[in-house]
């Protein structure tokens, strides 16, 4: 590209980055990942998409994809919804082989606090579910705080099993309201099922956040006619509500897991977004 512009690579990169807010290599990588998620949604294999995106291995592609979208390539839903990654310049992939440039970019960048908290919540929940797998059934279901209410309308959350279930259920219920679906029926709290439910809801949750960010929908209002009487909710406050209670539940579970597993020598991180971001590189 530098040669076509009749400038040195150094000068081209500097000018390109200044104009777009993104180095050319980073922009290309991001746009190819946006193309990749679309191709996966149309049924292409992970292997074909990985090499088409310029990766030397499926493993390398999977790591980059998971870091970008918050879930592995294999969990990409089979719908051709637009899935754009955050950028300040509004340049995105547009199927099948085009670019779309938004007129007035209104997007969060990766280091935006809201984006960090949302992505950290998903990854931290995944980590806690993984650690909980080390518990036996009695430890998993042991009543630790009789009568504990996190949200009064959800009932007591007295065990690791119940708190983890409500952590996931909260997103499922609010997504159903946002997407105009029936409120999901109460599901079990067996750990293997919670892991599957978390991975499913994480994809939809992140898709919803990206869509709200792209169209500036944080101030939109949801009027829920299923409530008696009907209630209205500002979407931004809904996301803040979910994140607030999710944070409380995660640290509650983290404390209980440490109580159970400290003797066994299991190290459980602090759940610090700073450390999480460092580990992501």
From TrEMBL:
Pfam family name, one: DinB_2
Give residue ranges for domain HTH araC/xylS-type. 1-79
* Molecular function GO terms recorded: DNA-binding transcription factor activity; sequence-specific DNA binding
Q: Keywords for this entry?
A: DNA-binding, Transcription, Transcription regulation
| Name of the featured protein | DinB family protein
Per the UniProt record, the source organism is Nocardia stercoris
């Amino acid at each position: 590209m530098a040669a076509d512009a009749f400038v040195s690579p150094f000068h081209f990169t500097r000018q390109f980055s200044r104009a777009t807010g993104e180095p050319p290599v980073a922009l290309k990588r991001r746009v190819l990942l946006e193309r990749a998620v679309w191709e996966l949604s149309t049924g292409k294999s992970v292997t074909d998409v990985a090499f088409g995106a310029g990766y030397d291995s499926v493993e390398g592609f999977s790591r980059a994809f998971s870091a970008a979208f918050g879930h592995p390539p294999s969990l990409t839903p089979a719908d051709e919804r637009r899935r754009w990654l955050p950028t300040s310049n509004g340049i995105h992939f547009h199927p099948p082989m085009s670019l779309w440039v938004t007129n007035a970019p209104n997007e969060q960048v990766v280091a935006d606090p809201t984006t960090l908290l949302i992505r950290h919540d998903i990854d931290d929940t995944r980590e806690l579910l993984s650690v909980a797998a080390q518990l036996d059934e009695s430890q998993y279901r042991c009543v630790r705080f009789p009568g504990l209410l996190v949200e009064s309308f959800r009932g007591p959350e007295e065990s690791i099993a119940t708190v983890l279930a409500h952590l996931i259920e909260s997103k499922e219920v609010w997504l159903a309201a946002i997407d105009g679906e029936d409120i999901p029926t109460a599901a079990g709290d067996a750990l293997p099922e919670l892991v599957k439910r978390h991975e499913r809801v994480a994809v939809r949750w992140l898709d919803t956040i990206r869509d709200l960010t792209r169209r500036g929908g944080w101030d939109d209002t949801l009027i829920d006619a299923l409530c008696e009487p009907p209630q209205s909710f500002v979407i931004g406050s809904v996301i803040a509500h979910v994140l607030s209670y999710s944070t409380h539940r995660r640290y509650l579970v983290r404390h209980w897991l440490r109580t159970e597993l400290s003797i066994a020598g299991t190290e459980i991180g602090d759940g610090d977004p700073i450390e999480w971001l460092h580990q992501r590189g």
